[in-house]
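Notes continue from the previous slide.

Worked example: a multi-chain complex. Inputs as given:
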Amino acid sequence: MTAKSLVIAKFEFLKTVRRKGFILGTLGLPALMLIVAGLSLYSGAGFVGTSENQTIGFTDASGLMQDAPGFIRYPGMEAGKTALLEGEIHSLLVIPEDFLKTGNLTLYTTDTSLLGSTGSSRSVQDFVAENLLRHENVSGDVAQQILAPSSPSTIVLDSTGNVKGDQALTGFLLPFALTMVLALGILTSSGYLMQGIGEEKESRRGEFLLSHCSAEQLLAGKILGYGAVSLVQITVWVAISLIVIAVSPLSVLFAEIQLTWLLCAAIVYFVLGYFLFSVSIACAASLAPSVRDAQQVSAIFTMFAVFPLIFLQFLLQDPDSLLMQALTYFPYTAPFIAMVRLTLVNVPLYQIAVSMAVLALTILVLTRLAARIFRMGMLTYGKRATLKEVLGFLKEK
Amino acid sequence: MNPTPSDQKPEIPVLQVGHLIKTFNGRRVLDEITFEVQKGEVFGLLGPNGAGKTTLIRTILDIFRPDAGEITLLGQRFSDDIKNTIGYLPEEGSLDKEIAVAECIRYFAELKNVTDIDRKIDSWLERLDLAGYKHKKIQELSKGMHRRLQFILAVIHEPAILILDEPFTGLDPLNIRMIKEILLSMSRDGTTLIMSTHQMDEVERMCDRILMLNAGTMVLYGRLDQIRQQFGLSVAVQYEGKLPVLPDVLSVNDSGNYAELIVEKDADTQAILRTLAANVKIQKFEIRQRSMNEIFIEVCRR
């Protein structure tokens, strides 16, 4: 790392974080998520509650139902319909005589909205279930457990039968979250990196820059600068998420988090993964004739970031399968697959060691080759470099 | 061709290129290039499009690495410190439009380890008549202003060697004059100028020596006056009538009542004048050294 790389990194960082697009993306996304979450909570509260507007009328030919708050009994269909049409009730539940045999229920409503009908359906289900349990003389505590069953606490045992030090949340949630943050980091920084390099190529600025510094210095500066940009963005997102978690019931779960070796492995994979993808994307972008082409080429690399999602089913079914082991050694999938496997099973230490060694070696080799490709690619204007040309770039001293 | 050694060698050349070879995909784009440039010289790098000028400049700047041969700058092999002593004004390429003029200069000045940046920014902006645009975004500059800003970026670190690729492109006559005056003043202060251009009149006015490339090989190298002498004379004739067949004339560029005659080295110009006088009404007859434009065309056609 040289002083020139730091000058480039600082310049790229400041230039990008001052862009309106960056500020909007960094603050806009969490704001949008908060709005969506707020709306969901607000709507959710509406589903459960039976406010005056949500009062449900019912006619019961089966004789199973008793009166309950929020529910008004009507002697017959006609009386119920009149009340519904006059707005006295939100909807009308019709329980037929043979309900126990057929399970048929009909709900009449004038509310055409999805939220309105969904809320009424849930209220009706709870109302019917409570009445059935009461009819069968099920005690209040038992009925409560049936209506709202408790979630079990999971305790993970290791192969010797002892309770594992890192339980579900500390052992799974945090590394998994780090894997997701890595994917997110790669996707965001690759976007900035591609745009930055693409713009420089399109404006033919590369040659002038290379008269001020070496390709290695330029590449290192850009990776550092855009990496810092991505880090700032992710930090803001994570910080906002943590604040939201801290004021929510989820805060209890995160209180258990400790720094385990799994977390250390996640950090190592994060750093190695970030550098591997940045160098690869920088090369790809330098070879493309325009920003648009750069995005297409770089999409190949960003696809690896979503590999765990594509292979999720196989990964959960058999995390130790030959395919998953192979993907643990392949440098572009290693950071993601290895991390998810680590959270699911006891991956042998040698596999982790080999996987990390392969990653580090790939970065080392790629960085040496990348500077040549980047230097020559930045000077190839207006056309996509052919494979023969790229091989020629690699032969450059 | 054999390189012509410089007549005077006051000190170590600021740039020495020896037997330089550069190949791309099996094609030799620079073939055995050998020349040197002295301190304070204005050196012309000429050649038709695709001759290898840009590749040579990029190799001197260490953007490309040579396959064979050697380049020394100020008597040393290329290094980061040496890079900081070179200024470069490329022919094309635009600057980042979203940043301010001063910020752009600061960035490139920091990359060249310039000290006292603020004072130099103000001084150069004043000199290039851009002081009012210091805090404006680059996108607000006209084409000529943009070119002047590029010039500042090339010289802000007071380079020992300044390489200029078509320096007057996109400039109006007033700006050309401004830049030319600065360049000549820098040259007088000891800065070496290497200028790649197709504007032969500028070469004739500014350059001490030239190197001309064609298809990656050296075709001309030496002092401008010696090269012109080497190519003999030409005759300009303004006339009325029909031009006759003339003795010792190699080629005629006839425009109807004005003709440029390229004559043999030891041509008898008096015989040409006599033949013309006998056949056409002569309004003007001028014997002169061949222009760089004529030499350029002739060498490229060979």
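Summary box: DSSP finds 18 helices and four strands in chain A. Confidence is low (pLDDT under 50) at residues 46-52 of chain A.
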